[in-house]
Design a protein that fits this description.
Length: 147
């Protein structure tokens, strides 16, 4: 091959590689989360609650939350239920709850009480169809797994 042909070949190869990498990068980007896919009709099980450096584990008890189009219900093994309305923004990952109501007694159920507080003060979410954080702030959140 002549020097000119090698140079043209190298430039063409670089362009093809660049275009391929660019297409793969653009294809991998998801600027908006699919809210319905993450939240709706999915049973989420609490794995732990984090408040700063303190972590509250569910200790093998099943605390869960289920979101629907028009609300959510969180339940605890002690019989506490937290019901309310929610909204999430897939682009900004903002999350907000309102009209929260509880049934059952929160007395003696620390985890249910902390869940209520975080739902009341929630500002954002993170996660996907396998795990979900409902965040009050950077250091206070609930982590759920999809079971």
């Amino acid at each position: 091959m002549t020097h000119k042909r090698m140079k043209t070949f190298a430039e063409t190869t670089k362009r093809i590689i660049f275009a391929t990498v660019l297409l793969l990068t653009i294809g991998a980007c998801t600027p908006d989360d699919n809210i319905g896919e993450i939240f709706i009709d999915r049973q989420w099980t609490l794995t732990y609650i984090r408040e700063g450096s303190v972590q509250y584990d569910n200790r093998g008890k099943k605390y869960s939350v289920q979101f629907t189009d028009d609300g959510f219900t969180a339940t605890s093994p002690s019989g506490v239920a937290i019901n309310g309305k929610w909204e999430a923004n897939g682009k900004t990952r903002r999350f907000h709850c309102w009209n929260l109501q509880t049934t059952g007694s929160l007395e003696g159920d620390t985890i249910a009480g902390k869940m209520l507080k975080i739902f009341t003060e929630a500002t954002s979410y993170s996660g996907d169809t396998n795990w979900l954080h409902i965040n009050k702030d950077k250091n206070t959140y609930m982590q759920f797994g999809n079971n």
